[in-house]
């Protein structure tokens, strides 16, 4: 077993455009090479001094690792250095999209495809000098930058060239939030269990309210007997609406066995992207989306943290996920 506290950073990859709109350039810094580390420090210092933005996919994780394992960079990688996450840019374009990883987002924007080179889904390289490792690293950094550029162009096209979504205020606000997340992670700020209990109660009320609204307005049961059939009917009604109004029906995923339209997040989001927001069909799908999003918060966060993770029907709860005196146990 390796000790995570001694895990070294092997390489650091960067991609950028000179002058902001020049040709894309790349660099891989091998951290066992003292000159490479000095060059990387100089590059990061230049980024900070020029007021440029550091972009990443899950950028807080990368910066936390650099700050922890390479203390020499802490003074440079510190607020007010501007940082932004590709996840946030994707959210600003369409908060309903389900893609979270770069491997899912980049192909969607026709930037690149990621292949799986062994049965585990991971690729191991012999050492930090491997050209394959360097290519893969630059594929990541270049794809992040290209995907960011494409999403920003789409935001301007859809919301207008002067949209507030890409304003300096918006970037500064999200940068501050990301820095706050990092500081909290580094400081180990504990959770307020009483406040979490109160928040869970409010979330449960919202969940129950959506359940009752669906039943009262449209006689749609969202849980229990008939709920799956009701969801299928909502999807079918949405497709029927599109065809009857000569609107394009998006490509939708189907089940393997019966070929039924899946009632999943991706299909709902695809239909919502073309349905008129004021239509009854869009309202039903939006309610179902909110119901499942809130249910996910309850099942993935509130219940495991406060009561223990549910391991399945007739199986005891896993107590290792519960908060202990406000602290999250290792492995959550």
What does this 3D model show about the protein?
- With 332 residues, the chain is mainly alpha-helical.
- It has helices spanning 34-49, 59-69, 86-93, 102-108, 131-159, 168-187, 193-218, 227-244, 265-272, 280-306, and strands at 11-17, 24-30, 53-56, 82-85.
- Helix 2 packs across helix 6 (168-187).
- The strands form two sheets. The protein has a two-stranded antiparallel ribbon with strand order 1-2. Strands 3-4 form a two-stranded parallel ribbon.
- Helix content is 51%, strand content 7%.
- It has ten helices and four strands.
- The relative contact order is 0.08.
- It starts with 10 loop residues before the first strand and ends in a 26-residue tail after the last helix.
- Residues 1-6 have low confidence and may be disordered.
- A hairpin with a 6-residue loop joins strand 1 and strand 2.
Q: Unreliable runs, pLDDT <50, ≥5 residues? A: 1-6
What form results from the Cα inertia axes?
A: globular
C-alpha end-to-end distance: 19 Å
Beta-strand segment tally: 4
What is the tally of helical segments? Answer: 10
Order of helices and strands: EEHEHEHHHHHHHH
List the helices and strands and how they pair.
Blueprint: E1 11-17, E2 24-30, H1 34-49, E3 53-56, H2 59-69, E4 82-85, H3 86-93, H4 102-108, H5 131-159, H6 168-187, H7 193-218, H8 227-244, H9 265-272, H10 280-306
Parallel strand pairs: 3-4
Antiparallel strand pairs: 1-2
Helix pairs in contact: 2-6, 3-5, 7-10, 8-10, 9-10
